[in-house]
Design goal:
about 350 residues; alpha+beta; 14 helices
Length: about 350
């Protein structure tokens, strides 16, 4: 059974006002003093962000439990410094992002200007084990059309600088400002994948292969495919659902490759339209069906994803739970829906943030 790991980026906020706090260095220092062997938490681009990474897990229930535990630990360490954490993919309240003190991040600020300063966006990255780079690239080629459905499920960033953006996932629109971000064409082999990465680095536009921000890529550090399309999810259960579906997509794609089935040959231009539609409407409108690239109700497309990965999820015992979790999201709404309903009820973005802090640790 393939192992799965999750990286989540959390927003550090004031527990009373909901305003982002640039305190990641202090929180990380406290975490290190508290447990010198603790390697879960990491620095990110902006001081208002805190990242954690789970250990690889085979059981999705164990993964969900670890995500919840890491979130609570992050809140505990932040609380010692006078702030807390919120699983929000953008800050609903206005913020002036503070870039972390780091040579790499300073290079990015100099190279990309305002695009770097505005990248206070928070995602969820899922790593799934693969047997080789060749299998990994075959997977990347075959999961491309389905990743937009994960974006719709995870969408959790409707507000930007104090205003409703009009999108369910505005984070994904901001993320696309990086020159190497987004969907990819079909590679066909690991050799072609690595050659393109080398050519991109050789341009000097990006610093190194760590700045290959494809929506699905081979990990630099681990024998995994890393899927990077999702917003950080409001609830830990949604994050576990996304990880479950990613594992199902990876296993399904690997089986198709071994059976000699070719990937769907949608152009990058069509995939960009599908991603835009998912970011715009989330689960509240229509999505582009991954097979046909035609508009259909979101619930139809989500169920098509479940049908696509159904055999793989059935083999791992995850199908019933994933189906129930998807139906709950379709019924009750994703993070973007929750945030907008909170804003409608309270009229206060501060209350949106403070209520989402509670959801983060639930």
């Amino acid at each position: 059974m393939r192992t799965v790991g999750v990286e989540e980026e959390l927003l550090l906020v004031d527990p009373e006002t909901g305003e982002p706090r640039a305190l990641s260095a202090a929180v990380l220092a406290h975490a290190e003093r508290d447990d010198a062997d603790q390697d879960v938490f990491e620095k990110e681009l902006h001081e208002q962000m805190l990242e954690f990474a789970t250990h690889p897990q085979s059981s999705m229930e164990s993964l969900r439990a670890e995500i919840a535990r890491c979130r609570k630990e992050a809140a505990r360490h932040a609380g010692e410094i006078g702030c807390t954490v919120a699983a929000l993919a953008t800050s609903p309240l206005p913020v002036s992002p503070a870039i972390s003190v780091n040579q790499r991040y300073q290079w990015m600020a100099d190279q990309y200007g305002i695009a770097t300063r505005e990248q206070l966006v928070l995602g969820c990255h899922v790593h799934v084990a693969v047997e080789s780079d060749e299998e990994g690239v075959a997977v990347i080629d075959r999961v491309r059309p389905w990743l937009q459905v994960l974006l719709a499920l995870s969408a959790n960033s409707p507000f930007w600088q104090g205003h409703d953006s009009g999108y369910s996932s505005y984070r994904s629109r901001v993320w696309q400002r990086w020159p190497s971000a987004g969907p990819t064409g079909i590679f066909g082999s690991a050799e072609r994948y690595h050659r393109l990465v080398a050519e991109m680095v050789a341009t000097g536009v990006i610093l190194d292969d760590g700045m290959i921000y494809f929506d699905a890529r081979l990990s630099r550090q681990y024998p995994t495919v890393e899927v990077r399309v999702s917003d950080v999810c409001l609830r830990s259960g949604t994050a576990a659902l996304v990880a479950t579906l990613v594992r199902g997509l990876v296993e399904t794609a690997a089986r198709e490759w071994r059976a000699g089935r070719e990937p769907l040959d949608h152009s990058v231009s069509l995939l960009r339209l599908a991603y835009w539609q998912a970011a715009r409407s989330g689960l509240t409108g229509e999505l582009l069906h991954p097979a046909t690239m035609r508009r259909m109700p979101a619930e139809t497309v989500v169920r098509a994803l479940l049908d696509h990965v159904g055999p793989a999820l059935s083999d791992t015992g995850d199908l019933d739970r994933a189906r129930a979790a998807c139906e709950e999201l379709l019924r009750e709404g994703n993070g973007a829906t929750v945030q907008r309903e909170l804003m409608k009820r309270t009229g206060s973005l501060r209350d949106v943030v403070t209520e989402c802090v509670r959801h983060t640790q639930a």
